[in-house]
Each structure stands twice: as C-alpha cells, then as structure tokens.
## 1
Amino acid sequence: MLPSSTVENYLKAIYLGEGHLADDQRLVPMGQLASALGVAPGTATTMVKALAESGLVEYEPYNGVRLSAAGEKLAALVLRRHRLIELFLVRVMGLGWDEVHDEAEQLEHHVSDRLIERIDEMLGRPEVDPHGDPIPKADGHVARHEFDTLLTCPLGERVTVTRVTDQEAPFLRFIEQHNLMPGESIEVEARDEVSDSVRLKGRSDQRITIGMRAASKVRVSASDASSRG
Amino acid sequence: MLPSSTVENYLKAIYLGEGHLADDQRLVPMGQLASALGVAPGTATTMVKALAESGLVEYEPYNGVRLSAAGEKLAALVLRRHRLIELFLVRVMGLGWDEVHDEAEQLEHHVSDRLIERIDEMLGRPEVDPHGDPIPKADGHVARHEFDTLLTCPLGERVTVTRVTDQEAPFLRFIEQHNLMPGESIEVEARDEVSDSVRLKGRSDQRITIGMRAASKVRVSASDASSRG
DNA sequence: TGAATAATTTTGACTATCCAAAATTAAATC
DNA sequence: GATTTAATTTTGGATAGTCAAAATTATTCA
C-alpha cells in the first residue's frame, strides 16, 4: 500500500510541527496539527489513530502525536520531493521563489521516483531548496543543523541568511525586496523589546527595521570570516 | 467546483473513445468506457449518470454516453496538459518517449495553468506530442486532421509517419528501433491478407515486415513531394 | 479545590468512489 | 417469434476522508 496524498500530508505536517520542539518532548498537539492541515480537530484525531494503527506514528491521547521511524522516513521523502520540485521550478522553469510553494504542494504527491531522480541529477544534487531548507537524501536522511534567527543571533556581527521559515508569498516578496534571501550577508544592529523591533544593516549598508515576529522567521548562521577575504 | 481527477479521467476516456467513431453516432458504450478506465461496469454507469447531472455529458441509457460541449472542452484541456507534459518530459527532462505516458497520466491532474503555460512557452507552443497526437490549444480547440494508416495508405508511395496510436512501451520501443517514429518517411511496398502482413521500406531502404494489426496503429500522411527537393 | 475554560475525543452523518452480484433490457440466434 | 446470450443497470455494501456538535478530559485560576 503506498500512502495516499492525505497520509503524506499528515506525516509532513507532523514532521514540520515537530521541528519547533525539543528532541525529547516532541509531541505535536492535535489542535496544531488540525489547523496546519486545515481540517476539524475531530478529523485529525480520527486520522491520527488510523496512522498509529499502521505504525507510522505514535499517538498519546490528549497529549499529541509523534512520528515513528517509518513515518519519519516517509515524511522526509515527501519533503525531499517538495523541495526538489520547488528548486526545479525556480531554477529550470523560471518561476518566482514566492510562487512555487503551492505548485510543489500538489506535485509532491504525484511525481515518480524516476522523475525525482532526474530532477535531482539535473540540479546537481542540491543541498538546500530556494528557502534555504535542507533537502533530505533519497534514503530519508536529513542534514539537520539548527541556526540562530535574527532574534537570537549576536548583535553587531556579520551573519548569513540560511533559511526563511515562512512560506507566505507576501512575506517572501518582502524578504526578496529587502535583500534578505538565503545567502545574503547581514548584521543585526539593535533590538528593542519595547518597540518590538529589530534593526538590520543589509547589503551595501542598507538599513531596515522589522518586527520581532518577522525577525524570528529569518534563520542565519555566523558568516565565516576566513571565507570572505 | 473544479473537477476531480476521477471526473477528468472519465471525460478523457469518453473523448478518446469517441475518437474511433463517426461524427453523428458517436456514443461510447458503457462496457468500453468501464474497461478503458479499469472499473466495474456498474461503477461507470453510476458515474456517468452523475456527470450527466452536472451537464458534462449526454447519457442515453443502454446506448452509451457522449460529451457535451462543456465536457468536450474540459477533456481537451486535460489532453492538452497530458500531451504538453509528455513532450516536456521527453524534450527537457530527457526521458524516453516510451516511459512518459504513465508519468503524464498522474501529473495531468495536478499541474497549475500557470505551469502549463510556462511549459507550452518553453517548448515553443508545439502542435503535436511525442506520439504525433495533436496538442489542444488553451481555449480547448483541437486541430483534428485524420490520416491514413499503414494499412490503408497507397502502396509504393512515400508517406510520413504522423502518429503512433498505441501507447504500450514494448510497442513504442519496437517502433523506435525500426525507425518508424513520427516524422520518419517510409513506403508501403506490399500487403498480404493471407499472411496478415505489411512490408515496409524505411529509412535508407531498410526493409521490415509487420503484422496488419501493428500496421493499423501507425498513422501516416502523404509526404509532400515539393518539400523534399 | 472547585468552577470556568480550553483542548480533545466521540458520535452521527455525509460525499465520492468503488465492487460484486442480482435484475433488467437489448441483441442475436434458431 | 421464442429463447439464449450479452450488455447494462440496480441494489446493497465497502472505504477514505470529511464536518458539526455533543461529550469528555485537562488545565487554569481564583
């Protein structure tokens, strides 16, 4: 039995939901799962119980759900397809990075392994997708390295944007217009709790101030000084 | 309500089923439809009645079903997606023309108009797919021109292969190996009812003898003498 | 700790799609 | 024209996925 689109979507949502959490207590609550999938809470409960039956998740009533080893591998493969398709649409088809998410959301369930392999090959076995998210390998292995966000990284130090963890088109366009895409080198000049804002110095010392909520959606890593002459 | 994959498949099957028939009495019988879709006869009946409810087909109990104007347009658009995807997979992704059918069968239901437009553009608004079948326009209009087959075309006259009307991979590989793909120029030297065979002279006077059943699956048009010096 | 609130699960019901087998209708044959 | 055969439709039932609303459990807060 190969999993239906619905099952793949549930696994993916649980996988991404777990992302926020610590390694030990990584139970995704039903409410969060239901709203991530846009279904009623009861629907999520029913479905998750079925997933638990088939061994793809572990379900703790009233507590939440977490992926089993099998479920995690499947979720990673869905994400692999999603991210390879996104990158393909941007690099080969010339679509904008803010408009490929929905398309990939559909295609990820219907592309054969054969075609995905072809895409992977054509793109040169890439490590990350257009949002900077890592692309799982064909065996389901993911290079998980966690970074600071603009909210937590050191002040006054050059950092490189690695991921943008919000896939909404308007946000992505904002990011693009202000040169905050993955790969850009920037610096956090100041943060202010009171005004809920973060001031950035971007490319060619361009200044922008953004809200803390937005800042938390931009992941960065320390720019390696040695690699920049 | 946009149509489900199932509805699209029914419409496409009826469209293709009508292809064999004359313009007036073009009713596809239920049995044929059911077996084309791989469902039980009763299932096809039920579904067709529902399609008739929504105005996509005209249903005559015990006689068969034909597409309405709306249904025909929808079917043409599904076919457009299918054929553009096939051509894309061959030309851009480098897949074999005998392995793209199944992939396209899946993707045709899940690709956005936006992406199809991109593909169409990238391929230079092509007229035909890798099997020589015409690609409907975005408005649903199809250039329908019927040709002879190797079974009916004049003997001893140069003809050009235009379509191969059997999508089975083994057959397509056979066609490819013997240089009988769309575009190739060939000549029927002889036909023999008794031995059920057709003798062909192909590229660089290569000879092959094929069965009449196979010959009927290769459509051709008269090679235009003026265009070949 | 006990009531108010929030999250979760259960229940009953619905839609789309499918099948198997019985019943019916049409077609073919004698 | 009556009967056999073939095609089609009906019937009863199954599965996957969904919702709304009632019932339950957990949590919060006074």
## 2
Amino acid sequence: MQARIERYVEPALLLLLSEGASHGYELADQMANLLDVERVDYGNLYRLLRSLEGEGIVESEWNDELPGRSKRTYELTDQGRQLLDAWVTSLRAANESVSAFLQRYDERNT
Amino acid sequence: MQARIERYVEPALLLLLSEGASHGYELADQMANLLDVERVDYGNLYRLLRSLEGEGIVESEWNDELPGRSKRTYELTDQGRQLLDAWVTSLRAANESVSAFLQRYDERNT
DNA sequence: TTGACATATATGTCAACAACATATATGTTA
DNA sequence: TAACATATATGTTGTTGACATATATGTCAA
C-alpha cells in the first residue's frame, strides 16, 4: 500500500526540463532526487521521453560533445511548457483534495 | 491530463466507514461529496468492497430493516482501521512531495 | 589487456487499475 | 403500469508502472 500520483514522473520530467535541457540518464538521477525516491525506472522514462517527443512536448537531438558516449539531449517545447502549467494547476487541486481528506481524518483523531 | 491519486477511492472508503457503517450506494454519494467529484463508479466500488472483505478490511451483512430494498451494510474491522492509518501516513508523504514539487515550480515562476 | 563496472539508451512482458458498458432486482410515484 | 430511483453486480478494455532483458560504449584497476 503506497499512495502515488498517477503519471507523476511526467510533470517531474517537465519541471526538470523547464530548468534546463538534459538527457534521459541524467534526468533519472535528478528525478530520483526531486521525488525523493531510490531511483526511477530507466526503461519507462526513455519510453515516456520518446512518447512526449511524438506529441510535440519535447524535442531531442544526439549530443556528442560531452565526454562519455552519445547522449540524446531533450528540451521542452512551448507546448511542453504549457503542459507543465496544466499539470501544476491539476496537482494543486489534487493536493487540496488530499489536504481536505487529511483534515477530515485528523478531526476525528485528535 | 488529470492528476490523480492512484486507488484514492480506497482510503476515501475507509475514512467514510470509520465515521460509521454504510452500504455501497450510499457510500458512493458520500464519496462523491468527500472527493468533490460528479460521482464515483458504482461497479468498481462494489468490486472494491467485496475485495476488501476478502482481505478482512471490512465486514458486511444484509440489512433489511431500513425502507427500500435490501442493502449490504459494511463496517470497518480493526485491520481496516490500521489500513486507514497507513493510508493517511502515506498520503501525508505524497502531499508533502507534491507541495515540494509545487514550491520548486513556483520559485522559478514568481 | 581484460575484466569489472558505470554510463546511456532501448524493448518486452505482465498485472493492476480505472473508465465505461451492461445486467438484474426491487422499491416508489405519477 | 410505466417510468424512475435505489441497490448490487459482472464484463471488457486501454493505460500505467514494475520488472526483466538487451545492447553499446566509456573508464579504471589488476
């Protein structure tokens, strides 16, 4: 039993990319840090990135200039920034709903 | 795109039952009110109730004393109360995670 | 120089969850 | 007696996330 926001990695991804372009492997680290979890699943993250690219939310290109092997670097599109804003609005509403829930619980368990 | 807590109806159900025994059809109304949604899906709610009964989280019995057709009335077990407590702990953590997320977003969008 | 490990990207599989449709029984009321 | 509300229940399906696996390349120590 573990309360979880459905598709939470998606807004986390958008937020991180809104702070600067990055690539999958690095995003996974940043996200684990942001969400305070052990680590996020690489496979699903890469799939999500490709899927978002298909929808015009992010854009990518291979980057060979950094040391190490080639990285596919992603950045947000304008549409992606809009989607992040929509997520934030929605997450605020969800958070208020949960706050109301917890308050109702606490009222009966003082 | 709609931020949603996974299995949110479950803790909502447990909270409502912790405030008093009830039956499925009535719980659906109370829950729509609690979660501030149009309405919850009856089918999935009844299935959830049966499933929770199988796990010893709730107990039920037919109640013919009220007017109208027979109702299967559910109440929480001790195990159910413990599960509610666990949900609350977990929801608090999730809420704090989302709060941190929103704060980080707001910092860059003042 | 090779073996072990970290970095980096990617696909395959599967169970669960929620959305939506449908079925059935019974009570109420116009 | 027809329409509607109450009440419980099962069937079906797409999406999501957990877990497993594959592949390529860079780094570093023995």
